[in-house]
Design goal:
Helix content is 31%, strand content 17%. The protein is an alpha+beta fold.
């Protein structure tokens, strides 16, 4: 049995092929093998959401997923959201509403918020709070984050 595994997957719209140790997490692969450092290492236990990515359209904690399990899948990181209309609107709203303080949670929070708004473009405050409850922020108290996300819904301000 090999201690390394060849995998192929789509990352931010680009087909990638890498060889990874069988025990490497998707988070470590993204950061150290592929150099995408926007996905953050927070707790390493799936509790903080700093490492939130999309896998086949669903948000997941990259720290809980083995890199080998990315084989054949489609991954999107915060870098992959660059230029997307909703993502850009969220980033602008996070700045405008003061939802970015230390910034550590921001990539994971934007990934999750984008996912919530994709599913619920007219999300109300309760839906937003429920949607981001797995993403922790130690700086803002969440009010500013919820306000920023609310500002990008289609029901508020015409959406973006």
């Amino acid at each position: 049995m090999s201690l390394k595994h060849d995998i192929e997957f789509t990352l931010n719209g680009v087909r990638r092929r890498v060889t990874v140790p069988v025990d490497m997490s998707a988070l470590e692969m993204l950061r150290t093998v592929l150099g995408l450092t926007g996905t953050k290492y927070g707790c390493g236990e799936g509790e903080c959401g700093a490492c939130t990515i999309r896998v086949d359209g669903t948000t997941m904690n990259a720290c809980l997923m083995f890199a080998a399990d990315c084989d054949g899948r489609e991954l999107v990181t915060i870098e992959g959201l660059a230029g997307e209309q909703r993502s850009e609107a969220l980033r602008a709203a996070f700045v405008e509403h003061g939802a970015v303080q230390c910034g550590f949670c921001t990539p994971g929070m934007v990934m999750q918020a984008s996912h919530v708004l994709d599913a619920h473009p007219d999300a109300d405050e309760a839906t937003i709070k429920r949607g981001i409850e797995g993403n922790l922020c130690r700086c803002t108290g969440y009010r500013k984050i919820v306000d920023a996300i609310s500002a990008t819904t289609t029901s508020c301000c015409g959406g973006h």
